[in-house]
Amino acid sequence: MRASSFRWRPVLCVTLAALCAAGTWIYAKRVLIPGQRPYVLAHDMGRGNHSDLYPRWLGSRELLLHRRDPYTMEFTGEIQRGFYGRLLDRPDDPGEGHEFQQGFYYPAYVALLLAPTIDLPFSTAQKIFVCVMAVLVAAMIPCWLYVLRWPLPLWSQATIFGLALASLPIMQGLKLQQMTLLVVPLLAGAVALLVAERPVAAGILLALATIKPQLVWLVLLWLAMWTLADWRRRYRWAASFGVSMIVLCAAAAWFLPDWIWRFWNAIRQYHKYTGEMSVTQLQMGYPWSRIVEFIVLAVTIVICWRMRREAAGSEAFGFAVSLVLATTVFVVPTYGLYNQALLLPALLLTMKERRAIWSRSLANRILCVVMVAVFTWPWVWCTGLAVLSFVLPVEMVERAHQAPLWTSLATPLVVAGAMLSWGWQRTFAAARETTAS
Question: Which segments of 177-287 does DSSP mark as H helices, in order?
């Protein structure tokens, strides 16, 4: 009986993951989007493309083809006309049009990545970008498994990919064509190349990942600490990264000489009038959120400092990368559900070491149970609402369209807390036990 059940396990796991993915995407189409439509229509914001790719694509096209400055307010108005179907200039616009304002807000060298699509119609560019992102999401799974030194059979990787597609962050990122789903695979590929001792290629990918600097600065800080611990053997990725950044910045300056200043000013204005907050600010408010963020960041740096001498292929190195990415989602100053794609290596690490974590303490077991609950909640609700949308009246199901999102704010807190707890145990608690013995 056991042999028979083991033989059917791959089919069952892949099928279950596929059903969860189908449930999430059906929920998005039949429940979530219709549930949000009344608000969009009430503010006359439903005629545009609503694609996060559009501001970057339009800015890249105009910069490369006509050398126009994509950071101006005039250009922001053009972006709004495509994104919403009109300019946000009415007194009754949400937040007087500021909180929902769309703009370029990226380093100018993002245009180099999007250059192959600027001659295409935007609808075609959208389709290509979604396909590329889906392929990259699939490719980053074996990359993270390689970093974590966890070889899994193909059916297990297919299951993980299905569950990734079933997750709300990945679904939202693909729906919106969010460039986070380009940055996270670039990070995965760069770290995997470091582990594979391909530092030059790793530095190039890390430079490309800086198109969203708020998502990579903490990873770069950790890698700088790690590199300085053994400069003679590890400097090559840093040299490659530095040269790549110079090339990217110089290429952007060829089209817009003062783009760095314009980009920095655009970011300052963006945060000033949108008032975007981190996940901790949304949960705790100011100033407690800042205190908690500082503590989490400080503990993360201390743990990483203790691991700075570990080799790139070690388990400790993989743990440090996973911890840093989980902390990034915790402290990043702008909240976006799609940013939680950075939590994937932390989740994979937890699955890999689940037995050791579970057996260590009662606190660990509680954290594991909470993590399972937080991550299964959206899958259960999405699948349930997807099924009910075919049975019950649409209006009744749409009332619960926010239910799968109820745990979204808690997820980064739970994962970061768990990683910090386990990181502390791996470093300080383990060191004390070794000293005592």
Answer: 180-195, 199-209, 213-228, 231-255, 259-274, 279-284
Q: What is the pLDDT of residue 298?
A: 93
Answer whether residue 372 shows pLDDT above 50: yes
Say how many CA atoms lie within 13 Å of 67 toward its Cβ: 7
Q: Answer whether 108's CB lies under 8 Å from 265's CB.
A: no
Mean per-residue pLDDT, 398-420:
91
pLDDT at 91 over 90: no
Q: What is the DSSP letter of 117?
A: G
Q: What is the largest CA-CA distance in the chain?
A: 71
- Closest residue by Cα to residue 346 from 431, 278, 420, 425: 420
Choice among 69-83, 139-153, 416-430 with the minimum mean pLDDT: 416-430
The residue type found at 95 is G
Q: Are 65 and 118 in contact (CB under 8 A)?
A: yes
CA distance linking residue 145 with residue 126, whole number of Å? 29
In order of 60, 186, 326, 408, the CA distances from 283 in angstroms are: 36, 30, 17, 11
Residue 260 CA to residue 223 CA, distance in Å, equals 24
CA distance 129 to 123: 10
Q: In angstroms, rounded to a whole number, what is the distance separating the alpha carbons of residues 114 and 120?
A: 11
CA 187/CA 181 separation, integer angstroms: 10
Average pLDDT of span 158-171? 94
Residue corresponding to tokens 């993360």: 300
The pLDDT of residue 232 is above 60:
yes
How far apart CA 342 and CA 14 sit, in angstroms, is 23
Burial of 297 (0-12, 13-18, 19+ CB in 10 A): middle
Residue in the block written with tokens 């149970």:
369
Structure pTM? 0.91
